[in-house]
Amino acid sequence: MAASPGFARITLPLAAINFLNQCNRGMVATIGPLLAIEFGLSASGLGLLAACFFGAYAAAQLPIGVALDLHGPRRVQATLAVVSAAGFLLCAAAPDVMVLALGRILCGLGLAAGLMAMLKANSQWYPKERVAAVTGAGLFLAGMGGMAATVPVQAALPWLGWRGIFVLLAGLTVCAAVWILTVVPDRPPGAAVPQRRSLLREIGEFGRIFRDRPFLRFLPAIMVLSALNFTFTGLWAGPWLRDVGGLEDGPRALALLIYAMGLVTGSLVTGQAAWFAQQRGRSAMFVPYVGIGGVLLAQAVLIAGPGGFWPTVAAWFAFSFCGSVGVVGYAAVGQGFPPELQGRVATAINFSMLVLVFILQIGIGAILDLWPRTANGGWDPAGYAVALSVTFLLQALAAAWIVVAPRGRAA
How far apart are CA 262 and CA 297, in angstroms? Predict the structure, then answer.
């Protein structure tokens, strides 16, 4: 494998898009109550608004996987970043919820290559046992976008309003697109140039991926692990902290900041832990197994109910820290496929995961709407307990599938 041009040229510019992606996702948890009031949204309506982003994100995954393998992360990500900038501007100008939803859809399409482009670039330039660690370091920096979506956004709201924050995101996204286009190299010297084949044949490679037994064995656990983090950081952690935790705006923003810190530190620590474990002969899935257990335990604590500010925050921190290990699972599964399929393997997992996020965003809202609204306009704590019980059961079943699923490559 050719020597890498370095983290600053390969991973860092692509991490910038992931920074904006995570800021955009996490911001809805902060401004969601404002949007619900301004546009008169129910819980399911707010969930549907948040899910528009993830629905578009999911729909774009498989085509983006083909594009990444054929054209490389530099050109694909720089082009899509411009689409997301247009989406941010549309959100800022939205006169009603329908236009806001359309803006969210454009943002989802434009940011859909974020993690996948970084994984593809890293898999091209680094040895396979290093990919999880380097990607984790990139996500450590990107995760600061989720942190920026909490206390900083809450502090900026009186000055910029939620519309001004979307304008700021649009400008930053254009800057990131220019950075990627001018700095990130294409494929390594001597790397095989993808053969030009029909689009149908390229898309047909997804059939090979979805028939692979190890892929199917680990897919449910990995997709649920990541989907739960996306679902709660993207919306429902904020309302939970208000309605169940009883937190006002300031403490709630601080709690969301600590939640985001769990994702940031987890991305770095679990990526390095995976590399350390593999160096010592452990399975590439060893660290994801530990993460699954941690998220199950955190959900059990949250279902039991709040026990004060710091115990509650500690449970959410553990939830996001352990949930961040899903990306290690992406890298682990990708090790079983040739380099020319890495983009499609990653987007196949991401597509499946994002479809689940779309369902969970709306489904949790539908569960909450089964109870009357509370006096302060929130949702009943009993609804949150039921929703978390459903996600706990879903993850437990996905973990059990690893044990009972067929093993080995399909014939």
Answer: 15
Cα torsion 194, 198, 202, 207: sign: negative
Q: Are 345 and 317 in contact (CB under 8 A)?
A: no
Write out the chain's pLDDT in tens, 411 residues: 455 677 888 889 999 999 999 888 778 777 877 888 888 888 778 878 877 887 888 888 878 878 888 888 999 999 999 999 999 999 999 888 899 999 999 998 999 888 888 888 888 888 877 777 788 788 888 878 878 887 888 888 888 888 999 999 999 999 999 999 999 987 776 665 556 555 567 667 778 888 888 888 999 999 898 889 878 876 788 889 989 988 887 888 888 888 888 888 887 788 788 878 878 778 778 888 999 999 999 999 999 877 788 889 999 999 999 988 887 887 788 777 877 777 778 778 888 888 898 889 889 989 998 998 888 778 899 999 999 999 999 999 999 999 888 776 543
CA-to-CA distance for 157 and 162, rounded, in angstroms? 6
Nearest to 249 by CA among 319, 150, 365, 133: 150
The string of DSSP codes covering 215-237 is HHHHHHHHHHHHHHHHHIIIIIH
Do 113 and 64 contact (CB within 8 A), yes or no?
yes
CB 407 within 8 A of CB 217: yes
Segment holding 78, helix H or strand E: helix 73-93
Cα torsion 90, 92, 94, 99: sign: positive
> How many secondary structure helices (H) and strands (E) does the chain include?
18, 0
Residues in contact with 90: Cβ distance below 8 Å, sequence separation at least 6, in sequence order:
99, 102, 103, 106
Query: What is the per-residue DSSP string for 8-54?
Result: HHHTHHHHHHHHHHHHHHHHHHHHHHHHHHHHT--HHHHHHHHHHHH
CB-based contacts of 207, cutoff 8 Å, min separation 6 = none
Q: What's the pTM value of the predicted model, to 2 decimals?
A: 0.72
The two tokens of residue 340 are 């020319």
Q: Which residues of 82-104 are buried (b: 16+ CB within 10 A; e: fewer)?
A: ebbbbbbbbbbebeebeebbbbb
Among 42, 39, 50, which Cα is nearest to 236's?
50
Helix axes 286-304, 213-231, angle to 10 degrees: 40
